[in-house]
Write a structure and sequence with these properties.
461 residues, alpha/beta, Aspartate Aminotransferase, domain 1, Aspartate Aminotransferase, domain 2, seven-stranded mixed β-sheet, four-stranded mixed β-sheet, 14 helices, 36% helix, binds pyridoxal-5'-phosphate
Amino acid sequence: MDGFDSESLYEQDRLHVWHPLTQHQDYSHNHPLIITHGLESTVYDINGQSYLDAAAGLWCVNVGYGRQQLIDAALRQMQQLAYYPLTQSHPAAIELATRLASYIPSTPHIYFSNSGSEANETAFKMVRQYWQQQGFPHKTKIISRFRGYHGSTLGALSATGQPERKRNYGPMAPDFMQVSAPYCYRCPFHMQYPSCQIQCAEDFERRIQIEGADTVAAIIVEPIIAGGGVLIPPPGYFSRLAHIAKDYNVKLIVDEVVTGFGRTGSLFGHELYNIKPDIVTMAKGLASGYMPIGATAVSDEIFHTFLGATDSGRHLRQVNTFGGHPVACAAAIANLNIIEEDQLVKQAQSKGEYLKQLLVDQLQNVPWVGDIRVQGLLAGIEIVTEPETKTPASDAFMRLLGRHLIKQGILAGKATDVETWHNNILIIAPPLVIHGDELEQIVTGVAHTIRQVGQAPPIHV
Ligand SMILES: Cc1ncc(COP(=O)(O)O)c(C=O)c1O
């Protein structure tokens, strides 16, 4: 590609850029792609090679790359007011908060931050302060689920149910604990739906009873566990969970960082289950990754306990320098306009149906495919060495799969560093603007690659 000296960029990258989830010693044969530009669902690397981005970056570029309307909005905002903190206010934050409140009227108070991790950290602080101010100082515990992911900062990581992500970073923050995930393919209770009577939801009740409801502040859940392997809960799970939270006076935080803004075929994932959370957190698709932004949306009931005399100390004592950055807010507003104008939520639903059909048609008889889980444009393909034993494919197998897909011009996601020897889920979550023929190309490529890697001699990569 013109204007780039690829050799020296690779060398500088090797020397100076510390990449997440990457073993740097392998750089020479396992270096990252250096991506230079993108359009719709395709990105291009420094050598001019194109790739279908079946992972939408990190599952966030919902409106696709190169959207001029969004770029123009960000530029206009930068020209008008490049920065101002939300210790005061500005029109872009006001417009975005009002818009978000109109989408989820039961959580109409919006606190802005810069990422999903921060949005969740904020939610944890809010519920703890809420209970303090309600006169329940011991309600501090946060219950989440194994395989769930809530972020990289230490509070959000403590809520994360992925031991590999926590390894070497302990001790974790106290008062965070996990219960079983809704994982029907590998039911933690060795039962089957519906005769299981949704034990994975009941697990919350058991845990609350063991801990004592007077010590539990909140439950945090993703509508669909995304990075942990696209775990779609069975029917009835969320309504039972919402009942348990209500019965035991525990707040329900729904982490919509991946599932928000159309990903699952509804604007927010929790709409699929007809529940009203106390707090909704969001980030990624809020500005489709064009700018970093996170938000924590809060119910009237929680917000009102923060009201009091100026010196009552009841206000939220947290500030983020860049939270609600005007350019990020302007980008988010333009992003939401595109989602509405292009009817991307509806598109995600119908394209998701097509993706599901393609995956079932082309993968269900591939010997290494144990399970296929799809909701909207979020799909997980569980790779096993034998379907009978459900033995997870190794990390080396999964890495090789990823590399072969890249050779075919397809960037897919995968569960990474979740649990030792249980990272065997390939994840497809493309931009919501992806075309039908591109979905076909992805699924054909995935089917071909799984066969190719599966038939290769045992590998150590
Ligand atoms: C469900 C969920 N919550 C929170 C986060 C953390 O978001 P961020 O990486 O923006 O901090 C992620 C990131 O992947 C996520 O998948």
